[in-house]
Amino acid sequence: MEKHKEEIKWCSMKYLWKISDSVNSLFPKHLRPAFSSPYNLRSAFLKCKDKLDFLRRSGVYKLACQDCNSVYVGSTGRKFMDRMKEHRRAFIRNMPEKSNFAKHLIEFGHWSDFEIVPCHFASKGRYLDTLECLEIFNYKRNRDVDLMNHGLGEVAIEIAIYKRTKTEATAISERSETII
Question: Which SUPFAM superfamilies does the record cross-reference, listed alphabetically (predicted)?
Fold first, then answer.
Protein backbone atom coordinates (compact mmCIF):
# COMPACT_ATOMS: atom_id res chain seq x y z
CA MET A 1 0.00 0.00 0.00
CA GLU A 2 1.37 3.32 -1.11
CA LYS A 3 1.23 6.21 1.32
CA HIS A 4 -0.16 9.39 -0.12
CA LYS A 5 2.44 12.03 0.59
CA GLU A 6 1.07 15.54 0.74
CA GLU A 7 2.91 18.03 -1.41
CA ILE A 8 4.25 20.93 0.59
CA LYS A 9 3.69 24.39 -0.83
CA TRP A 10 5.87 27.31 0.09
CA CYS A 11 4.95 30.97 0.42
CA SER A 12 7.44 33.82 0.64
CA MET A 13 7.30 36.19 3.62
CA LYS A 14 9.58 38.83 5.08
CA TYR A 15 11.19 37.72 8.34
CA LEU A 16 10.03 39.99 11.15
CA TRP A 17 11.77 38.45 14.18
CA LYS A 18 9.37 37.34 16.94
CA ILE A 19 6.27 37.86 14.80
CA SER A 20 7.52 35.47 12.12
CA ASP A 21 8.38 32.81 14.70
CA SER A 22 4.87 32.88 16.16
CA VAL A 23 3.19 32.99 12.73
CA ASN A 24 5.14 29.92 11.59
CA SER A 25 3.15 27.65 13.93
CA LEU A 26 -0.18 28.91 12.54
CA PHE A 27 0.39 27.50 9.05
CA PRO A 28 -1.15 24.13 8.12
CA LYS A 29 1.25 21.23 7.48
CA HIS A 30 0.94 21.40 3.70
CA LEU A 31 1.80 25.15 3.60
CA ARG A 32 5.14 26.43 4.84
CA PRO A 33 6.54 29.97 4.93
CA ALA A 34 9.91 30.71 3.35
CA PHE A 35 11.28 33.70 5.21
CA SER A 36 13.48 36.28 3.57
CA SER A 37 15.31 39.25 5.00
CA PRO A 38 13.73 42.69 4.55
CA TYR A 39 17.29 43.97 4.07
CA ASN A 40 19.38 43.18 1.06
CA LEU A 41 22.43 44.51 -0.70
CA ARG A 42 20.34 46.59 -3.12
CA SER A 43 18.51 48.44 -0.34
CA ALA A 44 21.81 49.19 1.38
CA PHE A 45 23.14 50.87 -1.76
CA LEU A 46 19.92 52.78 -2.44
CA LYS A 47 20.06 54.38 1.01
CA CYS A 48 23.58 55.65 0.32
CA LYS A 49 22.45 58.08 -2.37
CA ASP A 50 24.53 61.19 -2.52
CA LYS A 51 22.98 64.14 -0.69
CA LEU A 52 24.06 66.35 -3.56
CA ASP A 53 21.66 64.61 -5.95
CA PHE A 54 18.66 66.63 -4.77
CA LEU A 55 20.73 69.81 -4.34
CA ARG A 56 21.34 69.80 -8.10
CA ARG A 57 17.60 69.87 -8.80
CA SER A 58 15.09 72.72 -8.70
CA GLY A 59 11.68 73.12 -7.09
CA VAL A 60 10.03 74.19 -3.85
CA TYR A 61 12.07 74.08 -0.66
CA LYS A 62 11.87 74.83 3.05
CA LEU A 63 14.44 76.47 5.33
CA ALA A 64 13.93 76.27 9.09
CA CYS A 65 15.33 78.45 11.85
CA GLN A 66 17.11 76.38 14.49
CA ASP A 67 16.35 78.79 17.33
CA CYS A 68 12.55 79.07 16.90
CA ASN A 69 9.68 77.47 14.99
CA SER A 70 9.93 79.82 12.00
CA VAL A 71 9.98 78.42 8.47
CA TYR A 72 10.68 79.95 5.09
CA VAL A 73 9.18 78.35 1.98
CA GLY A 74 10.70 79.28 -1.35
CA SER A 75 11.05 78.10 -4.91
CA THR A 76 13.80 78.21 -7.46
CA GLY A 77 14.07 77.26 -11.10
CA ARG A 78 17.80 76.90 -10.59
CA LYS A 79 19.67 74.42 -8.41
CA PHE A 80 18.74 74.24 -4.72
CA MET A 81 22.46 74.48 -4.02
CA ASP A 82 22.73 77.88 -5.74
CA ARG A 83 19.72 79.29 -3.89
CA MET A 84 21.03 77.98 -0.57
CA LYS A 85 24.34 79.81 -1.18
CA GLU A 86 22.43 83.04 -1.88
CA HIS A 87 20.54 82.80 1.43
CA ARG A 88 23.81 82.11 3.26
CA ARG A 89 25.62 84.98 1.49
CA ALA A 90 22.80 87.42 2.38
CA PHE A 91 23.14 86.41 6.03
CA ILE A 92 26.95 86.58 6.16
CA ARG A 93 27.12 89.94 4.34
CA ASN A 94 24.27 91.37 6.44
CA MET A 95 21.99 91.98 3.42
CA PRO A 96 18.44 91.29 4.72
CA GLU A 97 16.86 92.77 1.57
CA LYS A 98 18.22 89.82 -0.44
CA SER A 99 16.53 87.07 1.58
CA ASN A 100 13.57 86.92 3.99
CA PHE A 101 15.27 84.00 5.69
CA ALA A 102 18.49 85.99 6.24
CA LYS A 103 16.37 88.95 7.39
CA HIS A 104 14.79 86.82 10.12
CA LEU A 105 18.16 85.48 11.28
CA ILE A 106 19.72 88.97 11.35
CA GLU A 107 16.77 90.69 13.07
CA PHE A 108 16.38 88.14 15.86
CA GLY A 109 20.03 87.08 16.19
CA HIS A 110 19.12 83.49 15.33
CA TRP A 111 21.19 80.81 13.61
CA SER A 112 20.62 78.20 10.90
CA ASP A 113 22.69 75.53 9.20
CA PHE A 114 21.07 76.60 5.89
CA GLU A 115 20.03 73.04 5.11
CA ILE A 116 17.44 73.10 2.35
CA VAL A 117 14.65 70.56 2.70
CA PRO A 118 13.05 69.89 -0.70
CA CYS A 119 9.24 69.82 -0.69
CA HIS A 120 8.60 69.36 -4.44
CA PHE A 121 10.82 68.95 -7.49
CA ALA A 122 9.78 70.99 -10.53
CA SER A 123 11.19 73.10 -13.34
CA LYS A 124 10.70 76.84 -13.61
CA GLY A 125 7.17 77.89 -14.66
CA ARG A 126 3.55 78.05 -13.56
CA TYR A 127 3.63 74.56 -12.07
CA LEU A 128 6.52 75.55 -9.79
CA ASP A 129 4.74 78.76 -8.76
CA THR A 130 1.56 76.84 -7.98
CA LEU A 131 3.44 74.28 -5.88
CA GLU A 132 5.09 77.08 -3.92
CA CYS A 133 1.71 78.76 -3.29
CA LEU A 134 0.23 75.49 -2.07
CA GLU A 135 3.16 74.81 0.24
CA ILE A 136 2.98 78.34 1.69
CA PHE A 137 -0.78 77.92 2.13
CA ASN A 138 -0.24 74.62 3.99
CA TYR A 139 2.24 76.25 6.36
CA LYS A 140 -0.08 79.23 6.89
CA ARG A 141 -2.79 76.84 8.06
CA ASN A 142 -0.37 75.22 10.52
CA ARG A 143 -0.68 77.33 13.68
CA ASP A 144 2.44 75.74 15.27
CA VAL A 145 4.78 77.26 12.67
CA ASP A 146 5.64 80.91 12.06
CA LEU A 147 5.98 81.57 8.34
CA MET A 148 8.69 84.03 7.25
CA ASN A 149 7.27 84.55 3.76
CA HIS A 150 6.09 88.09 3.04
CA GLY A 151 4.94 90.03 0.01
CA LEU A 152 3.96 88.43 -3.29
CA GLY A 153 3.62 84.95 -1.83
CA GLU A 154 0.71 86.07 0.33
CA VAL A 155 -0.96 87.89 -2.57
CA ALA A 156 -0.58 84.82 -4.78
CA ILE A 157 -2.13 82.66 -2.05
CA GLU A 158 -5.08 84.99 -1.66
CA ILE A 159 -5.63 84.95 -5.44
CA ALA A 160 -5.36 81.15 -5.52
CA ILE A 161 -7.83 80.82 -2.63
CA TYR A 162 -10.23 83.28 -4.28
CA LYS A 163 -10.08 81.44 -7.61
CA ARG A 164 -10.51 78.08 -5.90
CA THR A 165 -13.49 79.18 -3.82
CA LYS A 166 -15.03 80.87 -6.86
CA THR A 167 -14.72 77.68 -8.96
CA GLU A 168 -15.95 75.55 -6.05
CA ALA A 169 -18.94 77.85 -5.58
CA THR A 170 -19.70 77.65 -9.30
CA ALA A 171 -19.43 73.86 -9.24
CA ILE A 172 -21.69 73.61 -6.19
CA SER A 173 -24.32 75.87 -7.74
CA GLU A 174 -24.22 73.84 -10.98
CA ARG A 175 -24.67 70.60 -9.00
CA SER A 176 -27.59 72.04 -7.04
CA GLU A 177 -29.27 73.16 -10.27
CA THR A 178 -29.02 69.67 -11.75
CA ILE A 179 -30.44 68.10 -8.58
CA ILE A 180 -33.44 70.42 -8.47
Answer: GIY-YIG endonuclease
